[in-house]
Amino acid sequence: MKPTPHIELTDQSKIAKVVLMPGDPLRAKWIAETYLTDVVQINGVRNMLGYTGKYGKKLVTVMGSGMGMPSIGIYSYELFAFYGVEKIIRVGSAGSYSPNLKLYDVVLASAAWSESSYAKTMGVTSRSTIRPHKGLNNRLLKSADKLGIPVKEAVIHSSDVFYRINSDEYKDIYEKHNAECVEMESFALFANARALKKQAACILTISDSLVTKEATSSEERQTAFNKMIEVALGSL
After folding, report:
1. What global pTM score does this model have?
2. Which of 8, 102, 205, 230 is the most buried (most CB within 10 A)?
3. In terms of Cα–Cα distance, which of 89, 26, 92, 24 is closest to 58?
4. Residues 37-94: pLDDT tens digits?
């Protein structure tokens, strides 16, 4: 096959049908080295690193998406459209908008709300809310139940910006759209999955709270979010 502009692999077999996709390429490396066997680094392009290995008998690829909707939009589209990937599970961190979501809580996105024009510009939908694949979400919930890991389902906010001039604007978003936490990628991932008739889901760990002002360190975010990874891998 011809290499894509961003992933640049010519061998489709190096990428599994199921991809776990954190934003941070260092987190991708940690997941692969911690949970997979027979790991092979498949590329090292730009801000994205990919690794393929086995979880039990299941072949899995872990690949960084970079930060933001344009970045995950490019990489997830190329994986779905050109490399035969059927399922992408985003694993990442989120900031809590709600007193119900505490530090280190595991959250499964029931929907992603966003002000982003990504889905409309792409021609998928003009709606501001997109849902993940129901069957994949159910598999994640069953995995969590089997592992005894509490998971909270919630609407999430996929934001285009990390720093807002009005830092209290999250209160209006929480009240008007029932979005209980914020991240920066899933709306675009769900849009791509809908456009290409693939499966996508998002499972997150709360890394900081806009309500209580608590926060974790970058080192903790890289290595301490093992529960959501175990849920994601258990769904396979």
Report:
1. 0.94
2. 205
3. 89
4. 999 999 765 557 899 999 999 999 999 999 999 999 999 999 999 999 999 999 999 9
State the DSSP H helix or E strand holding residue 93, giving kind and residue range, or none if neither.
strand 87-96
Residue spans of alpha helices (H) in 1-96: 25-35, 69-82
Q: Does 208 qualify as catalytic in the annotation?
A: yes
- Residue 177 and residue 97 in contact, taking contact as beta carbons nearer than 8 Å: no
Q: Does domain 12-234 have CATH number 3.30.1490.20?
A: no
> pLDDT digits over 135-181, tens only?
999 999 999 999 999 999 999 999 999 998 888 999 999 999 999 99
Active-site residue (options: 24, 105, 172, 208): 208
47: which strand partners?
none
Domain extent listing, the chain: 12-234
CA distance 180 to 133: 20
**CB-based contact 180:97 (threshold 8 Å):** yes
